[in-house]
Description:
The complex is a heterodimer of chains A (about 300) and B (about 300).
Chain A (H helix, E strand, L loop, with lengths): L12 H32 L3 H4 L14 H7 L2 H33 L6 H10 L7 H10 L7 H4 L6 H11 L4 H9 L4 H12 L1 H17 L2 H7 L8 H12 L9 H9 L2 H37 L1
Helix pairs in contact in A: 1-15, 4-8, 4-11, 4-13, 8-15, 9-10, 11-15, 13-15
Chain B lengths: L1 H13 L1 H23 L6 E2 L10 E2 L3 H7 L2 H34 L3 H16 L2 H12 L5 H8 L13 H29 L3 H9 L4 H12 L1 H13 L7 H6 L5 H4 L2 H10 L4 H30 L5
Antiparallel strand pairs in B: 1-2
Helix pairs in contact in B: 3-15, 4-8, 5-8, 11-15, 14-15
Amino acid sequence: xxxxxxxxxxxxxxxxxxxxxxxxxxxxxxxxxxxxxxxxxxxxxxxxxxxxxxxxxxxxxxxxxxxxxxxxxxxxxxxxxxxxxxxxxxxxxxxxxxxxxxxxxxxxxxxxxxxxxxxxxxxxxxxxxxxxxxxxxxxxxxxxxxxxxxxxxxxxxxxxxxxxxxxxxxxxxxxxxxxxxxxxxxxxxxxxxxxxxxxxxxxxxxxxxxxxxxxxxxxxxxxxxxxxxxxxxxxxxxxxxxxxxxxxxxxxxxxxxxxxxxxxxxxxxxxxxxxxxxxxxxxxxxxxxxxxxxxxxxxxxx
Amino acid sequence: xxxxxxxxxxxxxxxxxxxxxxxxxxxxxxxxxxxxxxxxxxxxxxxxxxxxxxxxxxxxxxxxxxxxxxxxxxxxxxxxxxxxxxxxxxxxxxxxxxxxxxxxxxxxxxxxxxxxxxxxxxxxxxxxxxxxxxxxxxxxxxxxxxxxxxxxxxxxxxxxxxxxxxxxxxxxxxxxxxxxxxxxxxxxxxxxxxxxxxxxxxxxxxxxxxxxxxxxxxxxxxxxxxxxxxxxxxxxxxxxxxxxxxxxxxxxxxxxxxxxxxxxxxxxxxxxxxxxxxxxxxxxxxxxxxxxxxxxxxxxxxxxxxx
Lengths: 302, 307
């Protein structure tokens, strides 16, 4: 074995250099990830005419809340906020209900339909009709221009069902049997025994569902774009962002033009971006330990 | 036979709540996941929305022929494949490297801090991400241009979003920025599953940290990597359109259109449902073909497979 150069603490120099490289790389990645958010936040809190001069990094130079107060005067944004909150709540609750009920029935070995339902669900992860057949279906079902189109088409997700199911599989069946001896039917067992014990998995899935609902915009674009009372916050943000980039042809919000006459479009974009992002910033750190576990579990099982 | 039937009914009655709790959702899945497949018949018709199924004119493979004679289609296919291959390469190597880097951090608090930040972009919508990316790359006070100017690498700001030949790289880089942290979760879990005694033994043998990564960590997550590669190859062609829709503009259209975006613009946008459906079908068939091919190849080479 050839001799190695060691540092005073006894570690080889090569390992010391390795450490330095690792830390520098990780810190660089962290900066690249975080800086854009901080920059946008600083710009949204900076006076819009001052921002045009440039040089804003992560702190506002001339602090103001005017960008926010101006865009909140725009009624489209308030409607968008209401619809986004509503679809997030309704979509998350219904999605949790469907996923947990299906997961519960699939976890029961004594359930005859188990294999069929499980295959029927799993196939949906691989086959899909594509955009246009789906659009025609929504049209035929007369769901265009309704709130329901936000919640109902995506109600059942096979992935969510399988994540919760693998969690339920880890709960001893004896608990269900003793509940049965006490006279509980299967629905009571689901509601009183399984649901409370599945909380960590439900929290993970709730986060996925809520983020998905909050972030989606394409269904609004496709089905409800012309319905002012049904547009979502993300869609309003999209209109603003697309309007001031090169393709102005997507731009439809008339009132937004008046708003943007008062402050620079850049500041409008930055402020709305922050409004759309903040709810996620608040929620996700609390649920992080759950979703890391949930993801890992899902990965191992599938 | 009679016995079996009666036992079925007995069981059915016993598990009536289980049926009640699953069958409505099965019906749901049928409507929203399986009925659209029925819509594939539109590809073989001269589909008119006002007519019923039996009144449509059947045209056979007419629209398939039209698609394969369309110059635009090959440009779109090129864009789709270019962006998906670039995404596949970057989306694979970078999260693996990042997971290994994270694993080598000794301070647990710092590691958790970095992880929390790295997940953040995954949770914001592509609209927010596209807005932020456009801002960072903009010519007036965008961070990237300011950095390059400050380092005297360039003399005047680059119009990133207006250059078609940069579009593929911008989409790939955006995806890396948004998803790297999230994609490391699986690899970190796989690394955590490697027995500490292996590292112990390597240290005793005098292996450096880099050698430990090369000879223990990487082989340890090999099967995870292969399974994820096979799954991604299956999705190779269906890269969607969200990023391209939100980051693209008229100036870069020749490079930004993907198959799905093409179906959206030339199928739905102009009311050519049949033509659009043909694109959707092409997309699905190639995906399945790629999945089986990738699975077959890896099965031969590495004895790992998912099917």
